[in-house]
Design a protein that fits this description.
single chain, two-stranded antiparallel ribbon, 7 strands
Length: 367
């Protein structure tokens, strides 16, 4: 619908804007067609009152011929034809107005004088319609800009919601089931170990929920979370699980999406170490190269089982979160060769103020 017709105050402003236009048209009639000011105003003001509504039709011709999808020739023909048609209708309407006013003694010669003003009125009507076309295109451009901004905001909200849902979903149900099963088995064999694992699991879940409320955290806090996670897995796998870290000190203050590494390490254990009779090693490396942060998660594995894992939900989740947060500025590469499965992340280096590992987590829990 015509935007001026949606809200009455917009239409009022539009109507008031036509008052000086009516005076200007009267001036053209007075100067070019030699009408007296009274005759010129008597013709111009009622004609402009009607023409302001006739010009509203420009909105629909602009909608039918959008600038970005219409070639120049079609634009010119469409609006020139519409302007000519509306201007002809306008001057014919003026002829009727002039004839009616000429019945009055004051404007007895107006009908004959009006004939000399036709070229001026046609030209004025033509230009006024084209101005209305320009105005409509400006309004359409502003609406498109607002819609684009709304879409960007909406997509940002959706991305944020998706990230939050992903954060909450990072604790794999299989991990919980396995942990609970391990606790159940330990209760009859080693009650002290079962109690220790319950405490570790509760602490890990509490920390995970605290981190899930943040969009990004220092790598050092993520490593602190992994310590709790690995402590739980150590109870399950014992000496079969070996964890090695090689983290540059400056990388510990780098900001990464919360809970980004936990699912990668969990996958390395669940789909890598758990399938090996003698267990294996999970390695975590972090390097800072200029403005980039590179993180590598490696684990020994059974390649036949790993090929299935390479398209798993955990990896897809991490990839989607990187794309939502960094777009094309982040990269994730997955490779498997020589009994080793590797996941390499490359993302922009964003730093936070240095804190002791786990300090931010402890402050969050204290609050």
């Amino acid at each position: 619908m015509q935007p001026l017709l949606v809200r009455s105050h917009r239409l009022s402003i539009y109507a008031v804007a036509w008052v000086p236009i009516g005076v200007f048209v009267a001036y053209l009639l007075h100067a070019s067609a030699h009408l007296s000011w009274s005759d010129a105003l008597a013709i111009a003001l009622p004609l402009c009152l009607v023409y302001q509504f006739m010009c509203l039709s420009a909105w629909y011709s602009c909608k039918s011929a959008p600038l970005e999808r219409t070639d120049t020739l079609r634009l010119v023909l469409t609006h020139a034809s519409a302007a000519a048609l509306v201007s002809l209708l306008w001057i014919e309407l003026g002829r009727v107005v002039a004839f009616g006013l000429s019945r009055l003694a004051t404007f007895s010669d107006l009908s004959s004088l009006y004939a000399t003003a036709l070229p001026v009125l046609f030209g004025a009507g033509f230009l006024l319609y084209l101005l209305a076309v320009a105005y409509c295109y400006i309004v359409l451009a502003l609406e498109a800009s607002r819609e684009a901004q709304a879409r960007v905001m909406q997509s940002t909200v959706f991305a944020r919601d998706a990230e939050l849902k992903a954060l909450k979903a990072q604790v794999n149900p299989h991990f919980l089931f396995n942990s609970l099963n391990s606790i159940s088995a330990l209760t009859s064999i080693d009650p002290a170990k079962a109690r220790e694992m319950c405490i570790l699991l509760a602490e890990f879940l509490r920390m995970t929920l605290g981190l899930g409320e943040k969009s990004s955290i220092p790598l050092g806090d993520e490593l602190h979370l992994l310590e709790h996670f690995l402590a739980i897995e150590k109870v399950r796998f014992g000496s079969r699980l070996d964890m090695r870290e090689d983290i540059q000190e400056q990388c510990k203050t780098a900001l990464i999406p919360a809970l980004l590494l936990q699912p990668l390490v969990e996958n390395a254990i669940t789909h890598g170490i758990a399938n090996l009779l003698d267990g294996g090693t999970v390695s975590l490396t972090a390097r800072s190269t200029g403005e980039r942060l590179t993180i590598l998660v490696e684990n020994t594995c059974d390649l036949d089982a790993t090929l299935i894992r390479s398209g798993g939900r955990g990896l897809a989740n991490v990839r989607a979160r990187l794309e939502a947060r960094y777009g094309k500025e982040a990269d994730m590469r997955v490779t498997a060769d020589a009994g080793t499965f590797k996941v390499q992340l490359s993302l922009p280096m964003e730093t936070a103020m240095a804190t002791a590992p786990g300090e931010a987590l402890e402050e969050e829990q204290a609050r």
